From TrEMBL:
It comes from marine sediment metagenome. Residues 23-229 form the PseI/NeuA/B-like domain. Pfam families: NeuB (PF03102). InterPro entries: Aldolase_TIM, PseI-like, PseI/NeuA/B-like_N. This is PseI/NeuA/B-like domain-containing protein. GO terms for molecular function: N-acylneuraminate-9-phosphate synthase activity. GO terms for biological process: carbohydrate biosynthetic process.
Length: 229
């Protein structure tokens, strides 16, 4: 099968719905297989005393704005994936007929989000991050117990930008061997480096069937997420 390419918007919209709409256009023109969103309600999943709460407030889109973005995606010939960081956001995504869910590695042991995602019966891209085999196994068992039977593991390093020595591409083979599942790679390499093009190709050589790549309107503005986009 050809490698499946996910365009990860993350917070590259900078909290601006017009930028989010422009990013959808870019992903469509690039002919990626899917565009992926990160949807959250900050007051549910983050404490107000967290040091980046103010920044997250600036980056947050309202549910009404997300619905407008999702409706725009639905008009195009592209799949719609998303990570919901809280139960309310997950339910919004289910109501808008998301094609697949991403579960961030920070939610690998979050039973509320895992259960809601599993109940949807949608395919799940499960990010492993720095999780142990036991943590990954527990998450897989929990998802399957709650109705999910279509899970792809995603390997990647949660450092921005990821250094070459931290990519650990051989771990793709390890995950396949240990869990017997398809494995993809999410890439956080410096978007301005030649490695941003080379590392994903190498990951495919190591067996990655899915590549998740961040993208942004322009790197020159150095907005949120530009480092790995």
């Amino acid at each position: 099968y050809p490698t499946f390419l996910i365009a990860e918007m993350a917070c590259a919209h900078q909290g601006n719905i017009n930028d989010a709409s422009d990013l959808v256009d870019i992903a469509v023109k690039a002919k990626t297989d899917a565009i992926q969103l990160q949807v959250f309600k900050k007051e549910i999943y983050m404490s107000p005393i967290y040091k980046d709460y103010g920044l997250i407030t600036q980056l947050e889109l309202s549910q009404e704005e997300w619905i407008r973005v999702i409706d725009l995606i639905k008009k195009e010939n592209i799949l719609f994936f998303a990570a919901g960081y809280d139960v309310e956001s997950v339910r919004l995504l289910i109501n808008k007929e998301v094609d697949a869910f991403k579960v961030h590695s920070s939610d690998l042991s979050n039973p509320e989000v895992l259960k809601e995602v599993a109940k949807s019966k949608k395919p799940i891209f499960l990010s492993t991050g720095a999780s142990s085999f036991e943590e990954i196994k527990d998450a897989l068992n929990f998802l399957k117990k709650n109705g999910s039977d279509n899970i792809i593991l995603m390997h990647g390093y949660q450092g921005y930008p990821t250094q070459l020595e931290d990519t650990n591409l051989n771990y793709i083979k390890t995950l396949k061997r240990v869990f017997g599942l398809n494995v993809g790679f999410y890439d956080h390499v410096d978007g301005g480096s030649i490695l941003a093009k080379i590392i994903p190709i190498m990951a495919i050589g190591y067996g990655a069937q899915v590549i998740e790549k961040h993208f942004i309107l322009t790197r020159e503005d150095k907005g949120v997420d530009y480092q790995s986009s």
